[in-house]
Amino acid sequence: MNIIIMTCIPMIQQHLTDLYVESIAKSHPVLLWDLSGLYNRDEQVSHRVENCQKIKSLEELDQELSRVTKPALIITNIMFYSLKRIYATVKRHGIPIANITKEGLAYHLFESNWRSLDVRYGFMDAAKTMARKIGPVRRTINWVVNGPVKYDYLLANGNFYPEYTRHFVKIHHVKYDEYLQSRSLPPIIEGTYALFLDTAATTHPFYGLKRHASKRKVDAQGYIDRLNRFFDQIEKEHNLPVIIAAHPKAEYDEATFNGRPIIKYKTGQLIEHSSLVLSHYSTSVINAVLAEKPLVFLWYPEMLYSMQKYMAIGAIEYAKRLKAAHVNLDHPESFEIHVNAKAYRDFIETFLINKKTRDQSNSELLLQFIDQLEVNRDT
Q1: Model confidence over 105-135: pLDDT tens digits?
Q2: Cα gap 319→331, rounded to integer Å
């Protein structure tokens, strides 16, 4: 079976990890398709995958799909609200679409926190969140907006929005394999350290899109200044140097964090050997939870009134569920470094692993899924 790996933003190295490309390629022919031009998201990013095919229009997508030898399967991380643009074109060729997502949990955590419904943080956003929380309303709106558009398969640990897919395949959280691989890797930094999981909160290309030009964003220098003051406090009170695990799309120079080391594409490995993890909302928090690392979540009020409110509210919700500290960077207070073992265990079993297959990696589960599709096709 031919496997088409498809993204709607510039394909970077992290996508190859999150979509298990290396494991799939050992058993199946793999095509890498970057649709960022088609989605008007052809941003300048570092560490872009060079050996992928860039598709810039629906006509080009249609032509390329016609050349693919069947049977084939599309594996993608394209968010549901973006699927409609290519859905009809893909379906003309009878190729099923499987989504491997890490965002379902993010939306669930955000929508679970009362702040997501606070109209002071944006009336329309609050109204949309309320609509999503009421199942019949959400399903009705989805049908009006998207009609028959659905993933054929959703591979995830949780199916928070069942109307988005025809078939749900339960696996572990997408970060599970990265966590497993990191356990056997040596330390990058000698000695103890605290690790900040950067989210590119002020440098991500998403915030610079034209359609977001009028939206409120946090002041970039004020954000960095708050972080550096808090990092100074960590280093003084806990005697732990702070290392920056940079987001793949972040662009910083050495001076940004006052000379602190900035490392990309080694986040799982850095988490594995850290003594403390600092974060807003980030999917890499999952690695820290699985590794049972002490976590402290960071936010401040300005974030709640900006485009960055999702990472602030997500951080607060993470802290509540994990019984971890959360710090207002406007008035940072001292905290104890600890792990609530029961809260971590409950979170892991509820949101991160499939208990029935906990001895298998996601790569193994994904290959079994593909093999079963081939068997079903032949019977």
Answers
A1: 888 888 888 777 777 767 877 887 887 778 8
A2: 17
Q: pTM (2 decimals)? A: 0.89
Task: Please report whether residue 119 resides in a domain.
Answer: no
The torsion of the CA quartet 160, 164, 170, 175, rounded to 10 degrees, works out to -70
Q: How far apart, in Å, are the Cα atoms of 7 and each of 28, 38, 86?
A: 19, 10, 11
- Does a structural domain hold residue 137? no
Nearest to 100 by CA among 153, 23, 46, 53: 153
Q: What is the token pair recorded at 255?
A: 């001076």
CA dist 93 and 118 (Å) reads: 44
Which residue's structure tokens are 């969140």? 129
Distance CA 153, CA 90 (A): 14
Residue 9, helix vs strand vs coil: coil
pLDDT digits 0-9 by tens, 263-321? 998 999 999 999 999 999 999 999 999 999 999 999 999 999 888 888 999 999 999 99
The number of distinct structural domains making up the chain is 2
Structural domain of residue 338, as residue ranges?
A: 185-344
What count of other Cβ atoms lies within 10 Å of the Cβ of residue 93? Answer: 15
Residues 226 and 164 occupy one common structural domain: no
Asked whether residue 117 is domain-assigned, the answer is: no
Locate the DSSP E strands across 109-252.
151-156, 165-170, 194-197, 242-246
One domain, residues 36 and 75: yes
**61: domain CATH number?**
3.40.50
Query: What is d(CA 127, CA 109) in angstroms, rounded to the nearest whole number?
Result: 17
CA 296 to chain centre: 19
Domain co-membership, 297 together with 370: no
Distance in angstroms between the alpha carbons of the first and the last residue of the chain: 15
Interatomic CA distance for residues 371 and 222, integer angstroms: 51
| Claim to verify: residue 219 and residue 365 sit in the same structural domain | no
Written as six digits, the tokens of 238 are 């806990």
For residue 242 the two structure tokens come to: 């702070």
What is the Cα–Cα distance from 168 to 153, expressed in whole angstroms?
A: 6
- In 101-193, where do the E strands start and end? 151-156, 165-170
Pick from 337, 328, 329: which is nearest to 292 by CA? 337
